[in-house]
Amino acid sequence: xxxxxxxxxxxxxxxxxxxxxxxxxxxxxxxxxxxxxxxxxxxxxxxxxxxxxxxxxxxxxxxxxxxxxxxxxxxxxxxxxxxxxxxxxxxxxxxxxxxxxxxxxxxxxxxxxxxxxxxxxxxxxxxxxxxxxxxxxxxxxxxxxxxxxxxxxxxxxxxxxxxxxxxxxxxxxxxxxxxxxxxxxxxxxxxxxxxxxxxxxxxxxxxxxxxxxxxxxxxxxxxxxxxxxxxxxxxxxxxxxxxxxxxxxxxxxxxxxxxxxxxxxxxxxxxxxxxxxxxxxxxxxxxxxxxxxxxxxxxxxxxxxxxxxxxxxxxxxxxxxxxxxxxxxxxxxxxxxxxxxxxxxxxxxxxxxxxxxxxxxxxxxxxxxxxxxxxxxxxx
Length: 380
Known about the structure:
Layout lengths: L1 H33 L31 H4 L38 H6 L5 E2 L5 H5 L14 H4 L33 H10 L17 H10 L14 E8 L5 E8 L50 E2 L49 H7 L19
Parallel strand pairs: 1-4
Antiparallel strand pairs: 2-3
């Protein structure tokens, strides 16, 4: 009887052991079946993220770029704690399109509040992007990221600024040629050599291809220059009125020309004939020079934090302008290395300040007022 009891206990023990094994196996299968993998993938150049163009372009069968922004099964919820879906807490905005946050704030995580992109703009302060002011484009009333950039790299400017994923055809405006202001297109095409277009330009004099393409891009919304001051521009767009209000309407106007400096200038009714400018003004960056445009290591810059980032945010320099005292100051603000305000640039708190004009329209020396031998207040 004793032996039968021992035998029975042994059988029961084996049954219990088998049951435990089955339960563990089932839990393992269930865990495997219902496990949620990594919510998002951190962008790291090379490796699984191989390919060119950063996380927004050049998708391949073997790359892992989609999951940098989208999570197929574990997208972040609003108000998620820091560390749950990434190093930063998710804001109150509802997650959309399986992104880390809302569509409106989708770019903020990588490009402002973290160093994931390797390049921070808006001085790493999200409110600089959200608050409207004269020192930058922003997402409140001026321009949102997606207004200018094609997130997936489709139909963008190629060549020198290809990595900036700027939309080649979008926000079409009146008086356009290929979505570029007609007057601007004529001047820009004169700068492009070899018969290429400004969208794909790779052969432009003096290495200006980047600035030429940026100018072509900017003129889609800012239809405010021509090839001669005598040229009348007829275009619809946003205009600042005399009383400070802003309207979208059609208007005829004349404007500062986009051209090389004339050796001898003359105009009907003028009482002076001769040189009036000592520096060329061929692109937007000729005057709107505050902030670096070439910080990317792929284009010769050091990367890193960008506090003064044309055309995103240039604290203190209204409309991205800088001022100076003559031709020696003509290129201040165009800089590849400085982390803070470019050396030598003078703050322009109001776009109407005289120093913006004196950079080109006197031949004086840097920082020395009234020592010009020609120019405004001297020869004309």
